[in-house]
Prior knowledge:
Elements: H1 30-42, E1 49-50, H2 61-70, E2 75-84, H3 94-106, H4 114-117, E3 124-133, E4 137-144, E5 147-154, E6 157-162, E7 167-172, H5 174-178, H6 189-198, E8 204-214, E9 217-226, E10 233-241, E11 247-254, E12 262-270, E13 288-291, H7 296-299, H8 303-309, H9 316-321, E14 327-329, E15 336-340, H10 355-366, E16 369-373, E17 376-382, E18 387-391, E19 395-399, H11 403-413
Parallel strand pairs: 7-13
Antiparallel strand pairs: 1-8, 2-3, 2-12, 3-4, 4-5, 5-6, 6-7, 8-9, 9-10, 10-11, 11-12, 14-15, 15-19, 16-17, 17-18, 18-19
Helix pairs in contact: 1-3
Amino acid sequence: MAPYESDDATAAARDEDLPTGRRKAARYVVPVAVVGVAAATIGLVPALADSGDPDLPKITAQQLIDKIAKSDVQRLSGTVKVSTDLGLPDLGGLESGLVSGAARGEGDGSSADPQSKLTELVSGTHTLRVAADGPDRQKLSLLESGSEYSLVHDGKDVWGYDSKSNEVYHSTGAETGGRHRADQPPATPKGFADEALKAVDDTTSVTVDGTARVAGRDAYKLLIKPRQSGTTVGAISIAVDARTGLPLKFTLTPRSGGAAVLDAGFTQVSFAAPAASTFDFTPPKGAKVTEEKKGAEEKKGAEAPEHTREHATKGGEDLAKGMNGATVLGKGWTSVASFDTGGGAGLPSGGRGGGQGGALGGFLGSLGDQVSGKFGKGTVFSTRLVNALITDDGKVYAGAVTKDALVKAANTGK
Length: 414
């Protein structure tokens, strides 16, 4: 990464590769797609800061970024909390169920499949326990009311266990294990920080914003802010452990103000090696075990955990990574991912005689704002971070940008 000219100077180093994935073209579930996109865009895990700002030696933004890059913490255990506030419409919990259901449709049908289970973190506050012992052993447990979901990576084996349904999901192979972060369990502030730093370029301001206490440890605060207008991202704050360089907290706030979209970090952390038994797993007696389908590793591997911790920053460029055939319009924080659903039409008609499809179209349309431009007509579905426009001819534009920016992108793309 190029040196900073000053604390306000910007870094280079941004991933230009846009790997393609499976197309997600369910045009009748647009609000649900927006929820899923938002989940992919923000990642998952919060933290509570202790009171008092420690007195630490001065450090520049470049030095702090270098400290993060050189951090080599491979053993840890701790508790994290994730609070996510996307500003979604209140559907009585239906939105989370629909998202996890949609993810199961892409997975192998098990409630223990991490691709579906971890999407539940898209809203509300959740408590997780994490542990890591080198590149081959990690564990994440999602604590729920009266139940627990565990994701265990031990060598070539990846196990997902949902105690509520007593279902187990199992996948094997070096490639599967390799999809997890080499030294951390999925869904930790380090993963989010890495992705945020990839997004730093000449459209970004990076500064050191004082110090903090997080999970009982002294930390520096790195502040990342877009220089561009038109993005919904206000700022990203990363609390970095002063001794180890490990990111302890990740907070993303929207430009519109108010509560953070994501407040993620450790409430307790230890850098001692976890007990070896932490990573042992044997399917409980009577549990339903689902083996990953043959060849599925090549298609998705352990994609869900990685999916939840990635794409913590820019809209269009990151969204395009998970959409087959998607193109990117614009640059930096105002980039927009564009793709065609292939159906040649937008929402199902809400007109008379539309039957069930018409009723569904009317319901979905009521959750969005009708817009028009050179591209034609369409509907914008919004969260506090990610917005998506689906046009009447079946094209989708999505990104961490405002409604006006989406319409402008659609006009340009047309």
